[in-house]
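Example (one chain per record):
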Amino acid sequence: MKTLKTIMLLAATLLLGACSMLGPEKVRHSKTTSLVNFLYPDGNIPKDLPAPTLHLPLRVGLAYIPESHQRNHIDNHLKIELLNGIKQQFSGLRYVHSIEIIPSLYLSNRSRDNQLEQLRQLYQLDVIALVSYDQIVNRKENLMAMTYLTIVGNYIFPGSHFDVSTLIDMALIDLDSKRLLFRAAGTNTSKGVVAEAYAKHQYDKHQNRDFSHAMAMMQQNLSMELSAFEQRLRAKDPNDDIKVVARKGYEMSMSFDLLLLLMLLACVKSVLPRKITS
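Predicted structure:
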């Protein structure tokens, strides 16, 4: 009797799996923020923006661009934690005076016309680093596909196969000229199969994890961009459209590490025995 029950269960599984091949249900949802849509909601991107003049050291703002809808948010605690990681990268730079994380409630997709100008005045900012992201989840629910079935005892759970693609982009914008100074991006993709009963938990876990991985890649690229940007500011190339003005008491001088090395070499030279000449 038990053997017959097992055979019937396997036969039903195979039959249902064959039927499911005719039409799996596909679901696609996303979390999206757009730098272009946020800065230019009317779709008109100006072509002739003025050349930026940067007053060093810079006062930097840091914020996420708000999502276009209020569903399927990335975990807010995770977002703040990752934003603090970016802040640390800016904090150690000689040409940065301060960096302020802008609370998300100060930015919205409504009445965007004067938001950046208001933030500029409120925080006394020179530039703002805006973090946008695009995360797409493609989910294929196959209620009868054997590939995605999990059998526990006499129960058959519908399965779901999904893949997650994440892009994170950080753009540093000069608030006076509205010019893009530089940008850094990071990506991540992953796939998974999960019993439908636990799907939401697994989706959230994958989406938050992938967001963290994409952010880590972006921060690696950001380190290189920040270094290249510092070299660009130091060079003061007359052909560069970025103009640099030093605030009172500030100069783009040699780094502290280089200065320390030169002082050390001078000390070593002073204690070396001098050659006696006749």
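Caption: Residues 13-25, 143-157 have pLDDT under 50 and may be disordered.
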